[in-house]
């Protein structure tokens, strides 16, 4: 029984460690410690896959984990985008787009609550793809400026891929929220 309790909490501990890595990542980027930032980001990205694998493989999925894991992912990515944008390493228009999408997702979920229609927070496929593309872009930027792996053309292409998947993902979530809100209004006779 004790080993099962450890397995149940291990994915949550990994997610929490990723969340607590956010201030470290921001500090490393703004302090110019970009090689270290690259390796911390790689470790944090791998930890995302590891906690998900452990949770699914050992039937250790928890309600807390279903909230803390995406929160840690979003906090890490948005913080990296903002810090790299401030440092002039990622285009400002893309940083604004990525942050706006997350505001739309969180805002939509919050707006749906008073209507009695909480939106089920299952990620859309396009959202998973968007997150993957964001991770790749941040890793490429940090690799270029932190360890000297020069991929300028690939980074430019990835910025546009991230922009397209961000718009598609934000639109998908907006549609999901509007559908939930309209459904609640129809159920309440407010057509």
Number of E strands: 0
Oligomer: single chain
User: For the record, what CATH class applies?
Assistant: Mainly Alpha
Strand portion: under 5%
**What is the H level of CATH, i.e. the homologous superfamily?**
CDP-alcohol phosphotransferase transmembrane (TM) domain
Q: Helix amount, in percent? A: over 70%
Which residues sit in consecutive blocks of at least 5 with pLDDT less than 50? none
| CATH fold-type name | Four Helix Bundle (Hemerythrin (Met), subunit A)
Q: What is the rounded Rg?
A: 18 Å
Category by helix and strand content: mainly alpha
For the report, how would you describe the main beta sheet?
A: none
CATH architecture annotation name: Up-down Bundle
User: What's the pLDDT, averaged over the residues?
Assistant: 86
Sequence of secondary-structure elements: HHHHHH
Number of domains: 1
Choose one word for the global shape.
Answer: globular
List the total number of helices: 6
Q: N- to C-terminal separation? A: 52 Å
